[in-house]
Amino acid sequence: MKKIRYSIFSALIVFVALSFTFEFDSTNSIFKKLKNDFGYVPSGKVKLNDSELTVQAFYIAKTVVTNGEYKVFLDDLIATGQIEKYKLAKIDSTGWYTVPNNNFEKLGESYHLQTEYESYPVVNVTKEGATLYCEWYTAKMNEGIPKEEHLIFRLPQKAEWLRAAEGSEPNKIYTWNSLYLRNNQGKYLANFVSTPQSSITRNEAGDLEIVTNQVKYLSKINTMDVISPAKSYYPNEFDVYNMNGNVAELLADPNEVIGGSWYDPGFDIKNRSVKKYSGASATVGFRIVATAIN
Fold first, then answer.
1. Contact, 190 vs 242, CB < 8 A?
2. Which of 232, 229, 239, 242 is nearest to 66 (CA)?
3. At what angle do helices 67-79 and 127-142 cross, to 10 degrees?
4. Which one, 43, 109, 119, 277, has the greatest CB density within 10 A?
5. What is the pLDDT of residues 120-174, one digit of tens each?
6. What stretches of the chain show up as alpha helix (H) in DSSP?
7. Model-level pTM greater than 0.90?
8. In Å, how far are 67, 104, 224 from 116, measured between CA atoms?
């Protein structure tokens, strides 16, 4: 099998090999900031496109970006007069109205605005908005930090995302060590849609669609919730939450999201469940990774 060395995606959007070991160092101030919110993923191998890649070590956010975190970003753009960036990054709540066979007007009116949803994943954000968030977050995290310690925060490459999801077991189906969607106590391990097999079909683009309203949403914090809080269910070996289901996650790779969402059936929220990304959606959020600037 062909082997390729996969190096960290640099600030110049090229692949470079790091000349030092990238790992947690409690004496460095930037890593103190990372400790609570990011999990450390050591270098390891991932199988992708018939090749075995070596993914260099990186940090990955324990949760996807939340409504509360994204609001701080948007508010800062307004406060600093970056109106054009705000227009690109603002949330389009009408995405709730485009989910087939459902009526989510109430979520469209409240999901991004009410404090009760601050800890829930932000959705209906464009990839341009997610990229701007990463740039803003990079600047904020590096404030007051010596230049030699600076990190870049960005969307993950597919190989990095898979490395964080599969961990020590390449080609693992889900982030947990089981083929089942419930644990030994009968509790669900992820947020997905439960629906009869006969109600699921594929559209012309090859994406799954639910063709009846005979569905059961597993996230029922209250009567209209379909998304679970960003930090819910159980973390994986890197202390990362909800890589399967809840919201599909944007990748740095062109036009792809991964991991499935609350609107996908259990068999389509696997680690390697990849779909085409066509724009802001109520089923898509994003998670960030941190790497060194070479």
1. yes
2. 229
3. 80
4. 277
5. 999 999 999 999 999 999 999 999 888 888 999 999 999 999 999 999 888 899 9
6. 29-34, 67-79, 83-89, 105-110, 127-142, 158-166
7. no
8. 10, 17, 13
Using CA atoms, how far apart are residues 89 and 134, in angstroms rounded to an integer?
11
**Each residue of 55-73: pLDDT tens digit?**
999 999 999 999 999 999 9
CA gap 84, 75 in Å, rounded: 13
8 A C-beta contact, residue 148 and residue 244: no
- The secondary element (H helix, E strand) that includes residue 242 is none
Cβ contact 227:120 at 8 Å: yes
Could you tell me if 51 and 1 are in contact, meaning their C-beta atoms sit under 8 angstroms apart?
Answer: yes
CATH tag for 3-68+96-292 (out of 3.90.1580.10, 3.40.50.150, 2.60.120.260, 3.10.180.10): 3.90.1580.10
Cβ atoms of 194 and 265 closer than 8 Å: yes
